[in-house]
Design a protein that fits this description.
It is a single chain. Helices cover 16% and strands 35% of the residues. With 167 residues, it is an alpha+beta fold. It has a single domain, classed as Nucleoside Triphosphate Pyrophosphohydrolase (Alpha-Beta Complex). The strands form 2 sheets. Strands 3, 4, 5, 6, 7, 8 and 9 form a 7-stranded mixed β-sheet that branches. The longest helix has 13 residues.
């Protein structure tokens, strides 16, 4: 059985164009820019579903995150990856037509370097984390997310984008 570090990852340039394929371990070790997807899960009452990452995650263990997502498989479309990640991490199944495309963002710091497509989904479906990547779930009124993030250990790669959620 292969480990998570053996998974293949697409390394991209700042425009998101695939340059080569490496192992996840190499991508993390060298902090290479890679593809990423993120899905903001919003309730119909305006609350944003947030979650605490598992303590075994290779990046930002036990930090809180405002989006579900991760690294797409090689050749997987952003939409396919977003739907898969939402199902794996939140136990929420959606169809492609409910994904609201929020565009592409890039982020780079000492821990991560990615170019990713962001999506939003509005649903009141029950959140049932299925794959062990999530420790806790909460729902924060969208207008309070930025203040919540100041008082919470939030993934630093997503924190700079919180202002864009205040719509």
């Amino acid at each position: 059985m292969s480990s998570v570090g053996d998974e293949l990852v697409e390394v991209v340039d700042k425009a998101g164009a695939v340059q080569r394929v490496v192992t996840r371990a190499e991508m993390r070790r060298d902090n290479l820019m890679h593809r990423n997807v993120a899905v903001f899960l919003q309730r119909t009452d305006g609350r944003l579903v947030v979650h605490q990452r598992a303590d075994w995650k290779d990046v930002y263990p036990s930090y809180w995150d405002v989006a579900f997502g991760g690294v797409p498989s090689v050749g997987e479309s952003d939409e396919e990856a977003a739907i898969r990640e939402l199902a794996e991490e939140a136990g929420v199944t959606v169809s492609p037509e409910v994904l609201l495309d929020l565009g592409v963002r890039t982020q780079a710091n000492a821990e991560v370097c990615w170019c990713g497509r962001f999506f939003a989904v509005q649903t009141d479906a029950e959140v049932r984390p299925a794959d062990g990547e999530v420790q806790q779930i909460d729902a924060i009124p969208l207008a309070q997310v930025s203040a919540w993030a100041v008082a919470t250990l939030v993934c630093p790669d997503i924190a700079p984008l919180l202002g864009e959620l205040q719509v």
